[in-house]
């Protein structure tokens, strides 16, 4: 059976009666009056007839199973929409949508709550406008979840939700903020063009992406970066930028379609990824894309110490210059560690007092000195750039 209306005012009671009767719902450009509260089906004071809807109860929770597709296309909900347990009760109520649940281009004038709801197939909220709080806490999306071009004028709460398939928040707006704490994304994820109007940064502690190695989280971190910059949290924006660049590097190596390739093409793509090795070593590991200047400092210390050990070993040959007149005498002896550390430091900084120098006939010592001098020039420049980038925002 099909409950279908177009360009009409429909009461929430009529919709709940259709759900109770196990009917498919298809509304287009309708206005829904009254509170669409699924909990009314469990109220003994309500008189819904022909209760074909499946209700499964246990000691821990009650599940209301909607087995037919529901579609609210370009509808307006004047009152609350509750497919979740009531605010003031601790009873665990789960609403299960076994078929598609489509709310595309609809307007929710009051609270919209889908807390603990389970969407077995497609969940469509494209173009929706949530004028007040929208709650999807602990919701489970087994199928495709679409929130493209949606507008959350109140808070959009998704904490502890699980998205198992393709998920898209493309061009969605969070006016007051959002919560993605402990959210898990298992499938392809798209946050392209997502933005926040107010100076608030979404909460995202412990957000998790199963396809992170493919760069699926790149657009999410770009969203957090832009929101942080507009809110004035520049250090947080820097951390998000670092995560974004790491994800971008993974995307360039694997690509979003890596799983769909044949074994041969996978091998070819990985081999071609050798060209990304300089960016991986220098940009990500060493420089941290300008957000990890301490790494450069540690690398500098390691280079200085390593060369100091070499210069003070029997493998090296370093001369001392003695005397003060123009015709200086030279003497060679194995350097002690502190002498090797001194020579390594002035070589790294390209200072070169001239009181020590590598033997002209000892190629290995000269090569190590040249390597350290070049490393010093590069690492010092990287450290200054990273430090200024890290602490000179605003």
What share of residues are in beta strands?
15-25%
Which spans have pLDDT < 50 for at least 5 consecutive residues?
323-329
Number of DSSP strands?
33
> What strand line-up does the widest sheet have?
1-3-8-12-16-20-24-28
> Gap between N and C termini, in Å?
61 Å
Task: Output the radius of gyration.
Answer: 32 Å
State the helicity in percent bands: 25-40%
Query: Can you give the mean pLDDT?
Result: 89
Count of domains: 2
Largest sheet: 8 strands, parallel
What structural class is derived from the secondary structure elements?
Answer: alpha/beta
Question: What is the number of helical segments per DSSP (H or I, 4+ residues)?
Answer: 8
Shape designation: elongated
Structural description of this entry:
This protein has 2 domains: 2-233; 293-391, Helix Hairpins (Orthogonal Bundle), CATH 1.10.287. With 394 residues, it is of the alpha/beta class. Residues 323-329 have low confidence and may be disordered.
């Amino acid at each position: 059976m099909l409950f279908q209306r177009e360009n009409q005012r429909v009461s929430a009671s009529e919709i709940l009666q259709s759900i109770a009767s196990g009917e498919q719902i298809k509304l287009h450009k309708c206005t829904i009056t009254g509170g669409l509260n699924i909990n009314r089906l469990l109220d003994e004071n309500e008189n819904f007839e022909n209760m074909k809807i499946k209700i499964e109860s246990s000691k821990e929770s009650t599940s209301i199973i909607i087995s037919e597709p529901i579609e609210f296309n370009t509808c307006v909900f004047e009152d609350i929409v509750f497919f979740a347990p009531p605010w003031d009760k601790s009873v665990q109520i789960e609403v299960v949508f076994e078929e598609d649940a489509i709310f595309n281009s609809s307007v929710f004038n009051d609270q919209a709550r889908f807390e603990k709801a389970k969407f077995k197939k497609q969940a469509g909220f494209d173009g929706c406008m949530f004028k007040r709080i929208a709650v999807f806490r602990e919701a489970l999306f087994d199928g495709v979840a679409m929130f493209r071009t949606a507008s959350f004028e109140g808070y959009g709460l998704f904490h502890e939700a699980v998205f198992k398939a393709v998920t898209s928040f493309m061009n969605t707006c969070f006016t007051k903020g959002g919560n993605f704490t402990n959210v898990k994304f298992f499938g392809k994820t798209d946050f392209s063009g997502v933005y926040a109007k107010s100076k608030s940064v979404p909460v995202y502690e412990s957000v998790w992406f199963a396809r992170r190695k493919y760069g699926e989280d790149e657009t999410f971190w770009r969203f957090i970066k832009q929101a942080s910059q507009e809110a004035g949290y520049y250090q947080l924006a820097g951390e998000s930028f670092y995560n974004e660049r790491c994800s971008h590097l993974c995307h360039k190596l694997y690509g979003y379609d890596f799983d769909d390739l044949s074994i041969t093409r996978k091998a070819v793509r990985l081999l071609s990824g050798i060209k990304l090795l300089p960016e991986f070593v220098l940009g990500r590991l060493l420089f941290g894309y300008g957000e990890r200047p301490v790494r450069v400092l540690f690398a500098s210390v390691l280079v200085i110490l390593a060369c100091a050990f070499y210069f003070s070993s029997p493998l090296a040959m370093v001369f001392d210059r003695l005397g003060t007149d123009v015709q200086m005498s030279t003497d060679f002896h194995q350097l002690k560690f502190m002498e090797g550390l001194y020579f390594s430091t002035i070589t790294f900084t390209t200072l070169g007092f001239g009181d020590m120098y590598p033997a002209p006939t000892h190629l290995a010592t000269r090569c190590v000195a040249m390597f350290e001098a070049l490393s010093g020039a590069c690492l010092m420049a990287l450290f200054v750039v990273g430090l200024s980038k890290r602490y000179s925002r605003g």
